[in-house]
Structures are given as structure tokens and as C-alpha cells.
UniProtKB/TrEMBL annotation:
Pfam family, one: OsmC
Listed InterPro entries: KH_dom-like_a/b (IPR015946), OsmC/Ohr_fam (IPR003718), OsmC/Ohrsf (IPR036102)
Highest taxon in the source lineage: Bacteria
UniProt-recorded name of the protein: Putative redox protein
């Protein structure tokens, strides 16, 4: 399977990328690097892709397990190398679940399935970074 993404320069340091489904996203950089902060930075998009990929898995698995949560958030942190080309050498992924009487065993199973089996972006990150994960339960 091949995905095609077209990225078009919009002026200055802003780019717009499409998606195979037709949606678009803006990329830019900070003013200190000549941009206007009008979009996500490419490296931030990588962390977003990681969180989104795993988050989609987890929500889908929890739905199949009939596990209810009132809210769910994924926090990602990336540590960049000092030298160019700078890349994430270490990444932390924190899964935060909110609700009443959270079924911690099923939630952990859903997260583990995403981390170990389904999330392709997680697997890509493992090729160049140490990835640490943690689960946080916020029972109301």
C-alpha cells in the first residue's frame, strides 16, 4: 500500500500538506527561525502522529471491549539530539484516562495492544528513539 501526500510551499517558511483523504495541515516554524508560528512544526507533527496513531488504536480497542471512559488524552514528549540533523532520540508517551470506576486491566490491555502490535508509528519511532510509555488513571 502506498500513501501519497503533496506538500506545497505557501510562502515564507509555511507549507501545506494534504492527506490521502483530502484534509490539509499547515506547517511553519517559530519567528526565531524565520517563520510565523502559523502551523505545527514538522517535528511536533511527528509527536502528534505518534499520539494519534496509538490513540486511535486504544479508543477502537476500548470500544470493542465496551469500556467507557469520560475523557482520554495522550501527552508526548520528545528529546532532540544536540547535533544536526536533530531528531528525537528519546520519546515518552503518557496515556491519561478519566472516568468513574475505570477498568484498569482492560485499559492497560488496550494500550499494550497498541504499543506492541498495532501502532505502526510507534514501531517507526522505535527505529530511531528509545520510547517509554506510562498509563495514568484519573478516577472521579
Amino acid at each position: 500500500m502506498t500513501n501519497k501526500v503533496i506538500t506545497h510551499w505557501k510562502g515564507n517558511l509555511q507549507f501545506e500538506s494534504d492527506n490521502p483523504n483530502g484534509k490539509t495541515v499547515l506547517m511553519d516554524t517559530s519567528p526565531e527561525h524565520g517563520g510565523h508560528n502559523s502551523g505545527l512544526s514538522p517535528k511536533a507533527m511527528m509527536l502528534s502522529a505518534l499520539a494519534g496513531c496509538s490513540g486511535l488504536d486504544v479508543v477502537s480497542i476500548l470500544d470493542k471491549m465496551k469500556v467507557k471512559v469520560s475523557d482520554f488524552r495522550v501527552d508526548t514528549y520528545g528529546e532532540l539530539t544536540e547535533e544536526h540533523p536533530k531528531y528525537y532520540h528519546s520519546v515518552s508517551v503518557e496515556y491519561h484516562f478519566y472516568g468513574e470506576n475505570l477498568d484498569e486491566n482492560k485499559i492497560k490491555k488496550a494500550v499494550d495492544l497498541s504499543i506492541e502490535k498495532y501502532c505502526g508509528v510507534m514501531e517507526m519511532f522505535r527505529k530511531f528513539a528509545t520510547v517509554k510509555t506510562s498509563i495514568h488513571y484519573h478516577n472521579k
